[in-house]
Amino acid sequence: MTLRLYDETFGKVLMEKSYPNTYYEDDGDIQECITQLVPPYGNGFYHEICFTNVHISFGNIVLTNRLQLYFESDFDTVEMHFALKGKSMATSGNFQKTVAFDSYQHNIIYAHHMQGKMEFDGPDMNILEINLAPEFFKKFLPDQSGLFEKFRNAIEKQNSSLIQPDHNRISLEMYQILNDIIHCDRKGTFKRIYLEAKVSELLLLQLEQLFNDSSSPSSLQKKDVKKIYAVRDYIINNLSTHCSLNDLAHQVGTNEFTLKKGFKELFGTTVFGFWNDIKMEQAKRMLLDSDLNISEISDIIGYKNPRHFSAAFKRKYHVLPSKIANK
C-alpha cells in the first residue's frame, strides 16, 4: 500500500509512503507519525494514526500560495472526509467530475487505485480524513436502502464514487467527535479502543444524516454561514470570555437576528447553549485527565465562583464535579 505525492512539475517526489499491512490485518498495534510541512509549500503539520482497518489523518496548515500536487495510490479505501477549513479540489480519471470541498463540508468517498491532481486553497487548511478498509466499512452499511446499496455496489465493482453527489454540512455533534479525535492523548491499546469508538460514532452520524436528509434548502446565504462558523470558532477558542449576543454578531459583521436564527439552523442549539455545552465538555475532560482542582477548572472556563460552576456542571451531567475529579 503506497501513496506518492509529486510537485506541480510531476517530477519531484515530495512524499512516498508505504502504509503497513495492519490496515487490513489485525495485529493489535497502533502506529503514529507526524509530518511537518515547511516552506515554500507552507507551515504546519500532518498527523497520521493507523491501526487495523482504520487510518486517521488530520492537519493544520498555513499555505503560502495555492498548492497543487499530483498523487498516485495503489490501494482501495473508503474515506470519511471532513473539510474543517479551506478549499480543496481533486481531479482524477476515476471520477466523472472534479471533487471539490469547501469549509464545513463532509462526505464519504470510495477510491480505487487513484491517480490525479489535488489543489489546496487556504490560506488556512484544516482537514480530517478517516480511511477505512472497504470490507470493514461495508459491515456498517444498512441494508434495504437505495442510497447505500448503490454505494456498496460501487465498492464491489471497484468504481470510485461519492456516497452522494452533494456534500453535507458538518454537524455540531460531528464537530465534537472530531475534536475528541484530534485531542486524544491516551496511549497504546487505550488510545486504539477510544479512537475505534469515536470513528464508529462519527460514521453513524454521517450515515444517519445521509439517510434522514430531507434536502430542504437552507435559508442562509453562504456569507452568513461563514460568519456563524466564525462565531462558533471564537467560542471554542475563548471559553472564559464574556460576550453578549450583540457583541458576537458585530464581531463577525452580522446582526443578532441572523446569528440567532442561523446558529439554531446550523447547529440545532442556541449560541449560549452551545457555549455552555463546550465549557462543560472541557471541564469534564480536565476533571478526568488532569490534576487541576475544581477552583482552577472553574476559573479556566470563565466561572468566578466555583459553586456556580459546580451547579452548572450538575445540571448538565447530573453529578457534582467533585464526584468525578481525578484522584
From TrEMBL:
The keyword Transcription regulation applies. GO terms for molecular function: DNA-binding transcription factor activity; sequence-specific DNA binding. This is AraC family transcriptional regulator. Keywords: Transcription, Transcription regulation. PROSITE patterns: HTH_ARAC_FAMILY_2. Gene3D superfamilies: Homeodomain-like. It holds the Pfam family HTH_18. Residues 229-327 form the HTH araC/xylS-type domain.
